From TrEMBL:
<dbReference type="InterPro" id="IPR014729">
    <property type="entry name" value="Rossmann-like_a/b/a_fold"/>
</dbReference>
<feature type="domain" description="DUF218">
    <location>
        <begin position="42"/>
        <end position="160"/>
    </location>
</feature>
<keyword id="KW-1133">Transmembrane helix</keyword>
<dbReference type="InterPro" id="IPR051599">
    <property type="entry name" value="Cell_Envelope_Assoc"/>
</dbReference>
<dbReference type="Pfam" id="PF02698">
    <property type="entry name" value="DUF218"/>
</dbReference>
<keyword id="KW-0812">Transmembrane</keyword>
<protein>
    <recommendedName>
        <fullName>DUF218 domain-containing protein</fullName>
    </recommendedName>
</protein>
<dbReference type="InterPro" id="IPR003848">
    <property type="entry name" value="DUF218"/>
</dbReference>
<feature type="transmembrane region" description="Helical">
    <location>
        <begin position="6"/>
        <end position="30"/>
    </location>
</feature>
<keyword id="KW-0472">Membrane</keyword>
Amino acid sequence: MGRRGWVVSGLTFGAVLPGLFLLWMGFVAFRGVSAVPERSEMAVIFGTAVTAKGQPRPALRERLEEGLRLWRGSLVRTVMVSGAIESGNRRDEARIMANWLMERGVPEAAIIVDSHGNNTWLTALHVARLHPQGAVVVTQWFHVLRAEWALERAGVSAVSGAAPSRFRLAELWYLFRDSVALPVYVLTKAPPG
């Protein structure tokens, strides 16, 4: 192939690749916004940042409201709250999430607190160790597909998703990030055992 052929091939590849990635992002978004939770043993609410005063930020509050809706509707028997202990303010996201749910009537016995869910993969491994007979991931729409994949890869069967219906323009950045992160997970995360 001559120099001109290489240039044409490079330009073609450079034009096709972004289009394919946009299609992939569309698929990730579609899977998230069309997620339908199925009756399962547990809901897994993924943590995210809290305020310095220990209150859920809006995105986390929306996840908690969605998890509470699933529990009140008897779609799940238990709720696992999984989050990190934040490095800056030392707030325990999972404990804050559990307290929020208990203040709204969820009994402590129905809540599993995972304060070491520092990322999606760690949360998935923690859920798999519990051997649930099914789980609903509760997170924002852009994260549903990766969270479902992680639980399935970790060994959890019958995984479905639920996401709050609210949309923020800033979430397009997170859609891009998750669209990159999922293929990385596929290439780097091995099933346990």
